[in-house]
């Protein structure tokens, strides 16, 4: 399945076909004629044919629909808002978060908790960062407000846990150092749109 | 096959036969649930049960364990005696009906088997000469199960279920009887053995009586309450109808009864209309009968996957206004042809 299907949000542009149904008969004789017609038309057998065809498709032509879920997963849209990821800078490998605290501030369910301090270079360092996923409503505001595209929504949607609240620490969400080359630029919520350059207009200076 | 040449049927033989029928049909009925799920799944391009055992075959055992260990709940205001006995009626009548049906070829137990060595086991447990009448009567009285169950359980869905049972009963029974009357007129006997022998050399009965065959199949679907006519427990409308309040093994008995009835209808259709257990071309008789029964079972599942079900009033309309006149006309024409 391609991602295009997920991205097509223009409902109504798809190919819908209107069924050409006859009127339901009201009089007795017409009803009787309909029954006779349906009895002797192969209508019912067409129905049988469809199910048999699907069975043959499924069994012999490898068109089984089932996804064996825990073992296989379908791709999800990049816009899907699942458990957060913390991204790193590609060049240096540092985490992108600058500790500005905007995500903590905007979070409407108040589930981000962070502490920052200055490190020896007087650079802001994130010393604590957790998200309480028992409270998070996956609204995506944090990803949208983040100026650095540091906090984004990942694709990890399996949130079932044995306890009511699950906390994720900064390290859990951070891209592991050895997988840095696999880090994808985030295409979803809050990301810069592909045609961002075209939308930028020069600020009018003269009045 | 000449009846006089067969060894004498003893009580021991009949008891062995009864045990075989009970064990085998109950097992097949259980296995039928697995087949049904698999076939329905394939027709909807799903996989069906896959996880318990190879290809999900042990799902059967898992279901059995589940059914046996479920709590047996009797609702507070239910009529306890009738509530308890209703599933037994369904299951028992289904198996009693099988007593007069030829299920397997007859055989003699090997001499070395202790106690039972040399006992002749007939193909029909009770070879009564009104076999068809008996089987149809037994299967019809099986509907007392749903009827009583629905009324005894003090549940509105149950009441609707049993009302629908009554409607269904009033509708299809006339068609079953009338449709099978025409073949009976041709053969001139109510015994399954005579039907079988009639088709040994000649063509299958379905060639002479196509209309009767179709009518009988339709009525058979109603009789076993399979899908186009599964009004009694249609989940989408009335939760589960007459089995709403049942749990555990009582519910399982209804199920076994239903599947046993499906097999019985398959056997009747094969013996009366589809040439019975005779050799066909080069295929031996016992394979033929299994093939026929298996196909009719498959056909019921196939129909369930394909066709929507009808409303109770549509069923009654269909049976009384369309099928019954057709059956009567069929009988008239058959009678005229026989006279000439
Ligand atoms: S997705 Fe919404 S609720 Fe969850 S952490 Fe971000 S801002 Fe808070
Ligand atoms: S908004 Fe972004 S940069 Fe600012 S603290 Fe949150 S994650 Fe870090």
From TrEMBL, chain A:
Membrane topology designation: Peripheral membrane protein
Entry-linked InterPro entries: 4Fe4S_Fe-S-bd (IPR017896), 4Fe4S_Fe_S_CS (IPR017900), NADH_quinone_OxRdtase_chainI (IPR010226)
Enzyme class: translocase
Chief localization: membrane
Positions with a binding annotation for [4Fe-4S] cluster 2: 107, 136, 139, 142
Cofactor note: Binds 2 [4Fe-4S] clusters per subunit.
Residues that coordinate or bind [4Fe-4S] cluster 1: 97, 100, 103, 146
Single GO molecular function: 4 iron, 4 sulfur cluster binding
Protein's cellular compartments: Cell membrane
Enzyme Commission number, as recorded: 7.1.1.-
Cofactor requirements of the protein: [4Fe-4S] cluster
One of the record's GO cellular component terms: plasma membrane
A Pfam family this chain is assigned to: Fer4_7
This protein's UniProt keywords: 4Fe-4S, Cell membrane, Iron, Iron-sulfur, Membrane, Metal-binding, NAD, Oxidoreductase, Quinone, Repeat, Translocase, Ubiquinone
A Gene Ontology BP annotation from the UniProt entry: aerobic respiration
Domain 4Fe-4S ferredoxin-type: 87-117, 127-156
Reactions catalysed, as given in the entry: a quinone + NADH + 5 H(+)(in) = a quinol + NAD(+) + 4 H(+)(out)
Quaternary assembly: NDH-1 is composed of 14 different subunits. Subunits NuoA, H, J, K, L, M, N constitute the membrane sector of the complex.
Record function comment: NDH-1 shuttles electrons from NADH, via FMN and iron-sulfur (Fe-S) centers, to quinones in the respiratory chain. The immediate electron acceptor for the enzyme in this species is believed to be ubiquinone. Couples the redox reaction to proton translocation (for every two electrons transferred, four hydrogen ions are translocated across the cytoplasmic membrane), and thus conserves the redox energy in a proton gradient.
Family stated for the protein in its record: Belongs to the complex I 23 kDa subunit family.
HAMAP family: NDH1_NuoI (MF_01351)
Name of the protein described by the UniProt record: NADH-quinone oxidoreductase subunit I
Biological source species: uncultured Sulfurovum sp
Top-level taxonomy: Bacteria, Pseudomonadati, Campylobacterota, Epsilonproteobacteria, Campylobacterales
Gene that produces this protein: nuoI
TrEMBL record, chain B:
GO terms of biological process kind: aerobic respiration
EC number, UniProt record: 7.1.1.-
Catalytic activity: a quinone + NADH + 5 H(+)(in) = a quinol + NAD(+) + 4 H(+)(out)
Class of enzymatic activity (EC top level): translocase
Pfam families: NADHdh
Annotated TM spans: 12-35, 81-104, 124-148, 169-190, 202-222, 259-277, 283-303, 315-339
GO MF terms held by the record: NADH dehydrogenase activity; oxidoreductase activity, acting on NAD(P)H, quinone or similar compound as acceptor; quinone binding
Alphabetically ordered keywords of this record: Cell membrane, Membrane, NAD, Oxidoreductase, Quinone, Translocase, Transmembrane, Transmembrane helix, Ubiquinone
Localization terms from the record: Cell membrane; Membrane
Membrane topology according to the record: Multi-pass membrane protein
Coarse class of the protein's main subcellular location: membrane
Entry GO CC: plasma membrane
Family statement: Belongs to the complex I subunit 1 family.
Oligomer status and interactors: NDH-1 is composed of 14 different subunits. Subunits NuoA, H, J, K, L, M, N constitute the membrane sector of the complex.
Function: NDH-1 shuttles electrons from NADH, via FMN and iron-sulfur (Fe-S) centers, to quinones in the respiratory chain. The immediate electron acceptor for the enzyme in this species is believed to be ubiquinone. Couples the redox reaction to proton translocation (for every two electrons transferred, four hydrogen ions are translocated across the cytoplasmic membrane), and thus conserves the redox energy in a proton gradient. This subunit may bind ubiquinone.
UniProt-recorded name of the protein: NADH-quinone oxidoreductase subunit H
Native organism: uncultured Sulfurovum sp
